[in-house]
Amino acid sequence: MRTSDPWKECSKCKKIKSVYDFSGEQTLCKECSDTRRKMRMDRASKYHHTLAQSIKVEVLTHYGDGKCACIKCGFSDIRALSIDHISGNGSYHTKSIRGNLYRWLQKEGYPDGYQTLCMNCQFIKKWKNSEWRGRSQ
Ligand SMILES: [Zn+2]
Ligand SMILES: [Zn+2]
Predict the structure, then answer these.
(1) d(CA 55, ligand 2 centre) in Å
(2) How far apart are CA 48 and CA 90, in angstroms?
(3) What is the value of pTM for the model shown?
(4) 101 lies in which domain range?
(5) Residue 66 lies in a domain
(6) Domain assignment present for 1
(7) 53 φ/ψ angles, rounded to the nearest 5 degrees
(8) Which of 56, 118, 124, 132 would staple 70 via disulfide (CB 3.0–4.6 Å)?
(9) Residue 44 C-alpha to ligand 1 middle, in angstroms?
(10) How many domains does the chain have?
(11) Is 127 inside a domain boundary?
C-alpha cells in the first residue's frame, strides 16, 4: 500500500471512497457532510420558524387584550390574524420598519396604536375606511 493511498473510509457511512470524495482533512465523505449540513440548516430554519411563531403569538396576544384572537369577532386561528394599525396609516409605518413587524413591536415595548384583527375584520375595516374616504371627498 502506498502512503499516498487515494482511498479513505468515511467515518459515517463507512464506505471506502476516493480521497477526492472528501474535502481536505474531513473524515466524512462529501455526500455525508452534505447531508449533515442540510440537516443542520433544516434544524436552524425550523428553530427560526418556531421562534418567529412564538413572537407572533406573544404580540398578537398583547394586542388582542390578553387573547391570541381577533378583538372584534374573537376569531383565533393564528393563520388569519395580524396586527392592524388602528389609525389606518399602517402601510407607511410598516414600510419604515422594514421587515418583521412583530419583532419590531416587541423590541419597541409594545407601543400603542395597534390591535389584533383577523383578515375578515381587517378587510371590513379597510372597506369601511375607503367608503368613508370616498364619501368625504
Ligand atoms: Zn460517507
Ligand atoms: Zn375578526
Answers:
(1) 20
(2) 26
(3) 0.63
(4) 7-134
(5) yes
(6) no
(7) -65, -40
(8) 118
(9) 22
(10) 1
(11) yes
95 within some domain: yes
Q: How far apart are CA 82 and CA 43, in angstroms?
A: 26
C-alpha of residue 86 to centroid of ligand 1, in Å: 56
Q: What is the SS3 assignment for 112?
A: coil
- pLDDT tens over the chain, length 137 residues: 455 668 999 999 999 999 999 987 789 999 999 999 999 999 999 988 888 889 999 999 999 999 999 999 999 999 999 999 888 665 555 566 667 889 999 999 999 999 999 999 999 998 888 876 665 54
Upper half-sphere CA count for residue 36 (Cβ side, 13 Å): 11
CA of 48 to the centre of ligand 2 (A): 28
Tell me the β-bridge partners of 17. Answer: 8
What number of other Cβ atoms are within 10 A of residue 116's Cβ?
A: 25
| Ion ligand 1: residue ranges with CB closer than 5 A | 10, 12-13, 29, 32
Q: From the CA of 45, how far away is ligand 1's center (Å)? A: 24
